[in-house]
Amino acid sequence: DTAVSQTPKYLVTQMGNDKSIKCEQNLGHDTMYWYKQDSKKFLKIMFSYNNKELIINETVPNRFSPKSPDKAHLNLHINSLELGDSAVYFCASEDGGANVLTFGAGSRLTVL
Amino acid sequence: DQQVKQNSPSLSVQEGRISILNCDYTNSMFDYFLWYKKYPAEGPTFLISISSIKDKNEDGRFTVFLNKSAKHLSLHIVPSQPGDSAVYFCAASAGGGTSYGKLTFGQGTILTVHP
Q1: B98 in A contact zone (CB under 8 Å)
Q2: Substitution target from A39, A99, A101 for chain B, most B beta carbons within 10 A
Q3: pLDDT tens profile B37-84
């Protein structure tokens, strides 16, 4: 039973399209995150939500809009996709600080 | 401006020997450090961490060493096993480990352990 699950695993789309990536965690954690792994392999934080409240927004373009309908879900919607958005997006959750994140398997987005 | 760097993209080690993975950081505010391990097609998984009040933390075959003056940490795996072959990410945070997961990651080192 997967602790943090993301869908879809792979996404190939054209520039200018709008797409969403969904994330669900069944660990009962209060905090969820989106991280982006770029072509240089660095993992960079994009957003953090705690109990459905946005607490970190790392200067991500407005085209990216996270939505947390409840504390078990954090979805990522991307408008007007650009070539530079191609990356692997990881969802993660955490319980009670200490930075021990549980990551999903990642969603590879390719923008053509 | 990458505040956490892993300068070795890859490391190859014989089974049974020691693997040493290195990580350097530039931000003096970092006070909590972690290592994550990642297998292909999976997300990173937490391995071991260390607070800046310590210089060593050990968990089984894994030991992390922290040299604050040099802003350097290393992960030692002894003895190395083929199942340890993975990408290892170093990560750091400021705020005593309670910074809501705002981790700054290095770019990873691919460890290959040969039988």
Answers
A1: yes
A2: A99
A3: 999 999 999 999 999 999 999 999 999 999 999 999 999 999 999 999
* CB-CB neighbors (< 8 A) of B32 in chain A: 99
pLDDT band at B8 (very low <50, low <70, confident <90, very high): very high
User: Using the beta-carbon criterion (under 8 Å), do A50 and B100 form an inter-chain contact?
Assistant: yes
Separation CA B51–CA B64 (nearest Å): 10
Establish if B70 touches chain A: CB-CB under 8 angstroms: no
Measured between alpha carbons, how far is B52 from B65 in angstroms, rounded to an integer?
A: 10
Mean pLDDT, rounded, of chain A: 91
CB pairs < 8 Å spanning A and B: 70
Per-residue H/E/C for chain B: CCCEECCCCEEEEECCCCEEEEEEECCCCCCEEEEEEECCCCCCEEEEEEECCCCEEEECCEEEEEECCCCEEEEEECCCCHHHCEEEEEEEECCCCCCCCCCEECCCEEEEEEC
